[in-house]
Fold these 3 entries.
Entry 1:
Amino acid sequence: MQLHRKCIPFTPLDRELSKATVAIVTAAGVHRKDQEPFNIADELGDLTFRVIGGNDKNEELMVTHHHYDHTDADQDINVVFPLDILRELKAEGFIGDVAREHVGYMGYTMRLKQMYEETAPAIAEHINKKSRADVIVLTGG
């Protein structure tokens, strides 16, 4: 398996954080309970992603991932998907807003080329068009 690294240009934030909309993209396998779980039986990994609403409640979310111990995240989803924290930061005026949509995917994959060329661009396009976020918080599991 080969992995090629490409340089990602630094992109400075063009506004105050207090005026920025923030979204979460997590590789921790977070999704809504009413969504199809990630396929943990696929030995090569599940390359799909799930959209999570900015107004979703913690009790509506769960983790489907078998490549890390998510016991703590099962107790408090904010460990890997800090949506409540973003809401608190908005209430304090530290950030401008919480994005309408966020993304969860299962970070484990052996299909790195497909992740890099297909899944990651699809996630980026979705975030760009649907969440209208200025800042993305990336979390792992």
Note: The radius of gyration is 15 Å.
Entry 2:
Amino acid sequence: MQKNKVIMYTIPIVFWGGIWYFVCAIINNPLLLPSPLAVFTSLIQLIYDKVFWLNVSNSLMRIVLGFVLGVALGMIFAVLSHMSKLFRLIINPLISVIKATPMASIIILLLVWITSKNLSVVLVLLVVLPNIYSNTLKGLQQVDPKLLEMAFVFKMNKRNRIRYIYLPKVMEFLLPAVSFSLGFSWKSGISGEVLAQPVNTIGEALYYSKVYLNTPALFAYTLFIVGISIVMEKVIIRFIKGFEKGVSYESRN
């Protein structure tokens, strides 16, 4: 089983690595497309650079903060919308506006209103909030009314209703929302940093890699972003699934 997993991960890496090497050999221009070896060498050099880890920690902290705030506010707004039609009537236009506004417009407006170092936090929050809100609200609305009637008949308290009736259903919709939002958080957060150029961030490093035509470093940073995004997604999804299984197990017992 473990061997099959290794093969499943190795085959696509070898395939796309081969395509990359083949195209690189045809183009034969390191400024346009550096070789996998050049990018790997650049990544190793970055890993041993203290500035690299300072950039990563600053960007990671802000993106995670924006993500957590977006998830928290999205869930709170969804609960309030489920409880109050008036609140839903008020908040839905705002959610629709955030969804429809182009990312470039949001970034430019935020640069007018806030400092560059806080841009990625607010930007990620605005990207995450609508998706979490919509999926959480959908989960709440999909709760079986018969289960609620049964809970009322057996005088189940609010805490147990939330834990054993609402949470399992909400988790079904929250899991894909979190997975999508986390990947998009890195895309939007780093894009904002590239434009705003806050000091000692991944976005600033990407910008100067482009300015000084350091394409291997540009690719190395990009690969690192992809890697850390995938790792974070797997960790958070596993945590949510574990929580969901725990709730489901307790509800059966």
Note: The longest helix spans residues 158-196.
Entry 3:
Amino acid sequence: MHLPEYERLITALAERVAPGGVLVLSDAVDLTSDRTPDSPYTSVMRAMWRGLRSTIGTDVSWVPSYPHLLRGAGLGPVAAEIHVPPLQPGSPISRFWADTWERSRQAMVATGLVDDAAVDAAVRYLGSDACAALSAGMLTVWGWKPEEDPAVGS
């Protein structure tokens, strides 16, 4: 998500995998699409992703393409799964997001999508029983490098 030349990098990594070996990649996947109901959480998450993109180049929009990119790099079979930890009051992931928003508050507010009051409301929302949202997930994808055909080397 922080790599501007991700296709080139994935291809280079796949080339370095030994025949029969596996390449495993994990990255954040954003689940706050335009169809996600508006809430204090979704507003702040959208501002966070935009702020991260404008400050350090984070782009999670291509992460769901990982399986296709691994296949395109010559790996196969390819598989993937997403882990989405539950947002519950006081849970580790809820504390993580609240801490992340505090550290990136300035960049989030600079997007114009939220103000300080909106960030504070989202932190309160995470700590409440009213929270009904999906955390960003962690996509893990893996692909195997085909075994070399012994007949080819003969």
Note: The chain has one domain: 6-144.
